[in-house]
Specification:
Elements: E1 2-10, H1 16-24, E2 27-32, E3 41-46, H2 47-55, E4 58-65, E5 68-79, E6 86-93, E7 100-109, E8 115-117, E9 122-127, E10 136-139, E11 148-150, E12 161-162, E13 169-174, H3 180-198
């Protein structure tokens, strides 16, 4: 995990028209959440620089604006319907070295002996900002049909707490369904066996 500095400017004009104009200039539209000591701030910054930081696995950002720097993590990314255009970045203020909650995607690893089913794509964790992982790995390698993976089965990295009831079901492995062609072949075979018996 790394952190990154992003040079920002405060958005003076709000609304969809102003946002479209900024995006056309290669600027990302963002906001910094208010907290008990700070007001909400509307920002914009270089979108390419932000994506480069994300590709470098940055989770903690130092946002520089108005001559000051505030540490923040990404709370939410909003994309267009096709998932191609970044519409908005919502940041959450954090304090370095102090635990905060963040949403982290799940990454299922390995090959089960059945079909993997899961309702959760991400979980909430608590850790200091510099330890926020890219994903929480959940191994399903070799699990047989009927196997259930609960929150208590997930091995968490050191310093990271999973904020989920231990009995919460994360995944279940079900039987593989026969393909349509396989089912048809089985039916034909049964029919032939029946005809042979009748003869």
């Amino acid at each position: 995990m790394t952190d990154a500095k992003i040079s920002c400017a405060v958005r003076e004009s709000l609304g969809s028209r102003a946002s479209r104009r900024l995006r056309a200039m290669g600027r990302a539209i963002a906001s910094l959440q208010a907290d008990s000591d700070h007001a909400h701030v509307d920002l914009h910054f270089d979108e390419a620089e932000f994506h480069a930081a994300r590709r470098a696995h940055a989770h903690l950002f130092d946002l520089e604006f108005n001559g000051a720097t505030e540490s923040a993590i990404v709370r939410e990314l909003q994309w267009d319907a096709l998932g191609d255009t970044l519409l908005h970045v919502e940041f959450k203020r954090v304090i370095r070295g102090q635990k905060t909650e963040s949403s982290v995607p799940l990454a299922f690893t390995g090959t089960p002996a059945g079909v993997l089913n899961h309702d959760l794509d991400a979980v909430t964790v608590s850790c200091i900002p510099s330890l926020i992982p890219d994903a929480i790995k959940v191994s399903v390698d070799g699990l047989e049909p009927g196997s259930h993976v609960k929150a208590s089965d997930v091995t968490m990295p050191e310093g990271i707490d999973l904020l989920l009831d231990p009995d919460t079901e994360i995944a279940v492995i079900s039987e593989m369904r026969a393909s349509a062609s396989t089912a048809d072949e089985a039916e034909e075979a049964d029919a032939e066996d029946g005809e042979a018996a009748a003869d």
